[in-house]
Fold these 2 entries.
Entry 1:
Amino acid sequence: MNLARFFLQNHSQVLELTGEHLWLVGWSTLFAMLIGIPLGILIAHRTQLNRPVLATANIIQTIPSLALFGFLLPVPWLGDRADRLAILALTLYALLPIIRNTYAGIRGVDAAVVEAGRGMGMTESQLLFQVELPLALSVILSGVRVAVVISVGLATIAAAIGAGGLGEFIFRGLAMVDNRVILAGAIPAAILALLADFGMGLIEKRLRPR
Amino acid sequence: MIRLRASLGLLVVCSVALLSCSSSHSDRIVVGSKNFTESFILGELIAQQIEAHTNLKVERRFYLAGTYICQQAMLAGRIDIYPEYTGTALTAILKQGISRDKREVYERVKDEYERRFGLTLGPALGFNDTFAMEIRGEDSRRLSVRTLSQAAQFAPQWRAGFGYEFMERPDGYRGLVAAYELHFAEQPRIMDLGLLARALKDRQIDLAAGNATDGLIPALDLVALEDDRHYFPPYEAVPVVRKQVLQQHPEIATVLADLGGKISDEEMQKMNYAVDAQHRDTQEVVREFLKSKRLVP
Amino acid sequence: MIEFRDVSYSVNGIQVLSGLNLRVAQGEILVLLGRSGSGKTTTLKLVNRLVAPSSGQVLVNGAPNDQVDLIRLRRGIGYVIQEAGLFPHFTVERNIGLVPKIEGWPEERIRARVQEMLQLVGLSPDLASRYPHQLSGGQRQRVGVARALAADPAILLMDEPFGALDPLTRDELQREFLSLQQRVHKTVVFVSHDLREALRLGSRIALMEAGKLVTVLTPAEFLTSSDPWASAYVRAFGAGLESAANRGTS
């Protein structure tokens, strides 16, 4: 049967796997933001830290994803549940773009504006939340966008270790030598990535400072 | 500031939406299987049985890439039931040493699975997919050799062929020759698993290692020698179910009980052969089998 | 009002300021005049402690400014910089109302004050909802001044505020600033490298060179001074300075 009919017949499973995929991407991006944005702010203000932090994130990025999954498998508690492990690994991979863009965004805020604010008696936290973050927001979001797109792609590999998601269709299809099953995973994953990229790009544009 | 708050708000909303994406299927049963033919057949069997004898809708999630993947899928609730082997469960998942007693292995796996994972084992399906040493049917008849102990006296005249893994495993070749005092004339030939049966048929080797339920056994007129000293560990096929699912749908327990002991080694061989070598449609093969056993009307 | 006692400042091995002793009287406009690198901007930033001295003391209203609450100190000092440093993502209204807002003034009072400030600096009230990028350079600078004055600080620090403007607008703003000062009587420290501006605006001119205070003179004294640096400046700026010295009435 042709591809479209296959999708229709198996739409509930496609949706279910898409949901699992979003679960993996959603949680990991959230964690990466909760860790990465404060870290990025920290190294933007204390630049002596920026080299070690960025270097570490860079090193994590260069580890091949399947290898990282393999490293983490024997770890107790983590290795017991594949989705926990996958979310941790995806979080780690999302860190670099988020930290780097937060750093760049905050450093890119006009120093004169920040100094003017400081000179007028704004506290550091007021400066951060009222000046630096709003002005850096669009750059930070651009980093989040990159992280999300990377995660959608990497999450397909997470199926190799049993975390579910659209990658499972791909691996199953390979074992069954059935292209339709492979595409049932590959096409939605690609669409998801494009949607995320496009959607976040829109948000970014709206939030760009004038 | 407003923009910052708005984006934070959007983030919270998205997170909440995403986090409620977890899987939960109430009137649906998801049946899984591993990525080889026999597991696929068993999965289809379980699925068809459930469809025939309950009101539940069955979703198939077959060809999952291995034991760990299936286990994870069970724990996460992504699948509800799948066929496993007792020996595999004991060594690969529970990471314990294996014993030779079929009953003991089954009980141990059943207890541990319930205690640690909240998973229940259905009754064994009837066959033992363990290692089998195969010889040509004509040799078996001519020499009246049906067990491995009987084969020992002819071993010095035979050439053996094994897969790489069997040679390397401590409970493989080395243990075998020790348990049965087999002395082959020369070192066994190491071959690709898929070629062993052919090589045996073509007289390039006289004894090969395979699986007890290998479809080629009846097809090529091969005989699987009986493991009378019980050297090889038991790998009984069993359905593994999530306890929660059994509680919600007790009718499944009946379905699994009905399947208990219904598949012999030979019957499994025949089904494997039908799908692998004759390339027949799995669903059809399974339906035929179930009819023949009067498990479905 | 403001006093520098033996203040020195060095950073990265460079001596930016040495042995600065200076007093700024209440209500006067003290112009810090000097070349780039003379230390005049640093001197300005020492007042609101954006920079801390390496040695010596800076006193504001009689108290050393490292012994008072930094935030309170800064909120009581208006700060205007070149290109105004307006927040690009705030409307004119939010920019001007910045210090009142963080001081917790009620909304009504802030709104009224913003209108008052707009009037004071000669801007139309319907500019309140515009963003800085929608204004001209001169308008932006006026907003900067309005913002600095919004919380009614006693002291105003101005770092070459009119430097980036075209000569006509600069002239206009200087004139308006003088009349503004007539009304509000702030203590102003004003940094400039332009002698004409210094003569026009300053009650006194503090001439700085290479981190040292050379001399402090009134505009009239400056023109006739025999100090080598002062006379060098006068020569460099050429003719027509007397009219500037007469408080810009030309």
Entry 2:
Amino acid sequence: MTAVLIGRDLRKDYAVYGQLVHALRGASLEVSSGEYVAVAGPSGSGKSTLLQLIGGIDVPTSGTVEIMGTRLDTLSDSQLTRLRLTRLGFVFQRFHLLPVLTAQENVELPMAEAGVPRQERKARAQELLAYVGLEHRAAHRATQLSGGEMQRVAIARALANRPALLLADEPTGELDAGTGEGILELFRRLNHDGTTLVVVTHDENLAAEAGRAIHMRDGRICD
Amino acid sequence: MGAWVSGLQWSLQSLGRHPLRTVLSVAGIAISAAMLLDMVMLSGGIDRSFSEMLLAKGYQIRISPRGTLPFDTEATLGGAGGLVGTLRRDSAIESVAPILGTSLYGRINDSLVTLFGYGIQPEAQALYQLERGTDLTPDDSVGILLSGPASALLHADVGDTVNLVGRLDPQIAHAALMRRLVVRGMVRWIYDHREQPSVGTVLPVMQSLAQQPASDRVSLLLVKVRDDRAAPTVAARLKQELPRLQVYSVADLVSVFKRRLVYFRQLSYILGTMSLIVTVLLITTLLTITVNERLGEIATLRAIGISRTTVVRQVLFEGLALTLIGTVLGVLLGLGTARYLDGILTSFPGLPAAFSFFVPRAESLTTAGLVLLITGSLAGLYPAWLAARAPIAPILRAEAT
């Protein structure tokens, strides 16, 4: 299997109110194409920081990240932005859809940024909304959607540019159990259809759903 | 173009998140835009309006007694007939209009009303526009033209007879000369101020009323040069040839007028600058607040791969959208307030009614609009910079807790 992601000895320190926080103390992981990996652990264990480093959102204090063979520390800021746009998909705990745009427009946004022609991106957005079961909500503003629907739109947005790796940070954290189960089902289907997933969660049930679970504690991977 | 339009649409939708705040900001920008437009119209309008008024009848040169401005004093120049004849023989000159301005009186029953009289040569008149009745003819020694206010004061209309009284003898407080004249027409005197009761007769009649027949005196000569482009050259030549008289081109008079009204220009610059500063502050403040409220959203956009350029463009579009809406409303408001302010300013004593301080022109609108749009766009630079440099990871960490 091809390695989609390789993180080597990742360390991250940052200051909070003048106090140095060692968020990651040397974490390494490798994710192969088609894998569904859960990164589990209690709050403050460093799992979200790990996700930000492997997603190129933050820069490690030391260590390296490779996405599809490209070392992120060799990229300029604009190249890194482009890589996040075209190779990675992000799903956040609080969805972070643009409230002034419709579900369809939110899904089209990354494609518009990537320069996908209008007709093509409209068709792709409709296809993705149908995939997450929201084709009937395409014309609704984000503010008119429920929490579960917003997260489904966020997942559709993350898939817009056909990413090699989908990264999700506590995707069910803001949802009730029933709605969260629907999102987990969607992730299972995505993985079954070939999407590589790394999901950060403090929910052991969600971690158990994944093909492989990595546990973190105090900035280190335990197992 | 597509990205541009959708960017603007997105901006408008973003601004619509806080409608009251946006409406108040747009109202502030519109008021500033109106003030800027008015000040642009004021700074250019004074010169333009005065210049147009001077050229209303096509006479480009004024000749008055040495050291005086036209109609600024009661000074007159003598030997007008000879001077007019000399000037009319000049091949570059098309027409010469001698004018005598003097104060006189109208008699109504036993009382007198004060009037201003113009003595003119009807074949070369440069002072009025006929509104009703007929014009004077060169040999009409019993005809008179009245302005609206003079007509009202004398209770006279076309065809009526009026009694004009020349200068009073200060020793006996008695009129030296009285003439009965028939009203031929109602006219609008171009250089009259509002409510100025002016009358006009042929030059010899007014000279006799002013008791200045012997020396053939006039207040002013207006000269029309055949070729407009040659007017400054002819004016310069006449200055050389007539050193004992004061020769003014239109540019000379505009320059004198500008010096007299320099405070209006300074006021317009100061208020125009202030309105621009207010616009910048309004837009910058609103967009900075908006960007700070949306840092989470901006960090998410950056995280999913939206470039700094797109984020910056989006914030600038919001500034542009605010400015565009504010400018459109401001233009309408500015035109309305200019009309109102012009009414107040032109009612100042001594100012010709035909003069305007605020002249709405396409170039004024374009200048004010462009300055505002550039300013509005620049005002978005700081909040755009804030948005572009928003640290993604710390903001997302803060959002998650």
